[in-house]
Amino acid sequence: MKHLPSLSRRRVLGGLSGLAGTSAFLPLLEATDARAAAGSYPLRLLVIVWPDGVIGGDTFFPPLTKPDGALVIDKAHPQLAPLIPFASRLSMFGGLIFQTQLDSGSSSGHQSTPWLLTGKKGVPFEGTWDGVKNTAAGPSIDQYIANQLRATGIVTRFRSLVTRVSPGKGNGGSASVFGPPIANKYNAPIPEHDTTKLFETLFVDPSGVGVTPEEAARRRQAGKSVLDYLSRNLSRIGRAASADDRAKLEAHLAAVQELDRQLTASGKSGCVAPPAASVGSDLNGKVRVISKTLSQLTDLTAAAFSCDLVRTAVIHWEGPWDFAFPAPGEIVLNDGAAAGPFINEHTVAHEAPGSRAAVERKLLIDRWFHARFAETLARLDAVKEGDGTLLDHTVVLFANNMGDGASHYIGDVPWLVAGGAGVIKPGQVLRGPRGDKFRKLMPHVRLLRSLVSGFGFSADAFSDPTYGDDLSGVLV
Amino acid sequence: MSPWVFVTALRLKPLKKIVCQAGFFASLVCVASCVGAIDDEGHFVEPIPGARPAVVSARMSPSSDNSGPIQDADKTYPLKVGAGPLPLRRLGNVEWVNTVVDLLGLPESQRAALANGMPSEEVGVTGFSLPGLFGVSEVMRLGEKARQALKAMPMAALPGCVGTNETACARAFLTPFIGRAFRRPGTPSEIDELVALWPQLRPAHSTYVETLGDLVVAVLQTPQFLYHGLESTTQPPARGDVVPLSEHQLASRLSYFLLRTSPDEALRVAANEGRLTDLVELERQTRRMLGLPGAKDVAPDLYRQLLQIDDVAHVSKNEKTLGIFPSSLRDSMQAEVTSFVKDLWSGSGPVAMGQLLGASHSFVDESLAKHYGVSGISGAIARKATLPGDRAGLLTMGAVMTVTAGSTEPSPIKRGALIRQRFLCQQLPAQPAVVPSLPAAITGVTLRERLDQHKSDPVCKGCHELLEPGGYAFSAYDAVGRWRPLEGDKMVDSSGTLVAVDNGNRSYGNLREFVSVLNGSPELQRCAVRQWFRYALGRPEGTGDEATLGALDAGFSKTGFDLRELQVAIVKSNSFTLRDRSSVDK
Q: Is the pTM of this model over 0.90?
């Protein structure tokens, strides 16, 4: 496997002048946060969502676990071989099913977004997306854990960080990225894909650009007074509104209050950030190179974790454009701007059972994604935290949005969990029942519950009890 | 007198001279002087919301927001009067951009700049875009957009302050500004609260004007600016089960329906003077606004949303089979829909439904001309051209054919679903949990033959008997909308039987016959009324709207299915001018 350079970083106060004045970074990171003091490293959650299933069955799951808990992954394994360096820090959970989605009247992997990371059956909402009229009825796991942290007084500057690799408008006729409108409330904010913008959001204080610290403080105070005004205004109008309208205004108010917190909360003292030069366009000529965006998003997320700006994050490795192979070993976006011809990843997923050649192509795609996952783990592992690494202090969930890519069905879904040393038990393999594809599968909610429990929080408010309790064997 | 002649007459004659002519529009006008009416076919039409003679309106206080108590003697409405709710609804992206450009006096070039990067919108149950709830991202994004707009604002639009009392200057600026931003006069407390921000904002800026800019951005982030439904601080009295919209609610609803932006000066004055609840004045304002340039952008927006035209920008195509499908061609396809529909609305005459779904001409630039096989067109400017092959207006446009196809092949299923759902307003049965795959492509076997094989599965039959027959008519168009009369070496079969339409089955031999079936279908005509109704009101129809819809259906028919007259009729309907009482009393 290609050796990855360690995360290249430097102290924030040391530079970044190419993007903005040094003083611009001061307010965000200068305050001391007792919870993130040196020597104490919080547990974080990183969820990576990727598309269109895997070529599954017995070929996908490694058959053995060593006595020390490491998975035995054959170096000839067509999909998982890139993960061999992390075999001792990995567990695999197959045979999952998005039962909450099925119970909400939807069965397509394209439509799994509202249920993928949440714990309850859907509820009707006033819109429709991709033909579905139900949406999430509760927060996604990243939002839930972030809310629990807030409830215990741990207020990071950002509640949860949600990003995606693909630009583009709309959702391409699929709800696989943005989800339904109500996702704004329950699932996630709009995932950010512009890494330069994300960098500025995380590490640049707009009030501080090009001005003295005193001026920056005055600007922040002015910004806060406007947010306070908006909060008062929303509250007053909400009190006089009908119940339906009040709910909309309350969601709006919550968003304004969250921004207020972002303005005032700070990160860890003496924290470092990636250099501004490390982010930028993924365009190579007219071709968007996905792996470049993936790396940048991973590094920014790792830096945000390291600086304790946020403790939960979701990165969507999918989007409105098709991923496509222009050449073996690299995936780009088929966004119409670049000249093809391309082999579209989504098309390949559908065609895979049709011929041996199609299966080989799908295996190649699966391997590409698992190789990028291995790179992500390596990047987290390169960030030292005390005697361990950021990977040790991060539970990483690698979650496909469906099981079988050909039918897009949401059963027999294989998910991987890595990192979280001392919390997640490595070397676990949960297999789906063979020969009974769509029944007796394990509600994925049970795995999500277990991860919530790993953070020390009760998952009772996260999921509907209908779907069962925590999955045994996930946690140490 | 035929409806077509009548429409012409309507424009030529002074309104008062035709108010009692028979027919749909006559009915609409007649009710201006009589509350509620039964038209000549027995349909209930237009009991007038707060419908008062102009003299009553003239008595209203110019500053009155809700037109005050209704003073005319009529206390009861006929039993069939109904209306729907007026839910709080975020401005859509197009509305937000248009409103900000107009409010701040931005140059036209800013429309595209502001539109780029707006929050994503989903599709509502109406089939039209539905801006979601405000989350952190949306608040942040629209805050950034407001600051972007401020930077583009002409310097002269933010006046300086003569004298030393900056707070008084700010108040003098804000009072009329809020009146336009909130689509109603601001209340004293609303103005006071904004002015009270001045001492906190001023230290952060070196100049008065910069600080004023901060206040402008603050106004653009208020719920009063961002939501439909807050245009009134008090409500007119209920009339039975319904409540008339206030003058400013009506002005705002009218302006966003016809122009997708906030009320202009003339409409604001009419609302301030309490004139809009007079149906004659409401119609006069409607026809005035329909003549404005912005009114021609509305129908393209409606059909762009309805047919999901934007999806053509990113829908995936197999370029090995179909050839390169570049973004420039995708852009041309989107532009074609806009140009074609806009052209129909460009004149002052009737806008026939039949032209929309039957025209053999379109507007193509060089790349699209090449795609369609049209010769003699060069450059990026779209020009009117008659297209080769069998074309049927919107239905066979490249964008529509592309988004209703798979990555490699056309999809009679998706095309049939489009006809059922978007043009006939039919609900399709729910998709089964596991859908058997279509038989794989085999040389010598046509797509239609494979679909027939698929349909033989009893699990599939129920849905597919409804779906494909509406899609077979488009068999001669490939997955990117090119004319393709042959599939392999076989002529494609564009015949079929459209089942379950107008309570029967309608056979057609080719696309042209299919279009005739559609254009003659009362179900299609009723659907068009409902689509325009949903677009106008931003909500689906409900039981309270039955009387309005019945009247609109009848009127639409009498005008020969003139879509522009349908817009006028919707504006004057109960459902547009009233809201149900329960939605107020909650």
A: no
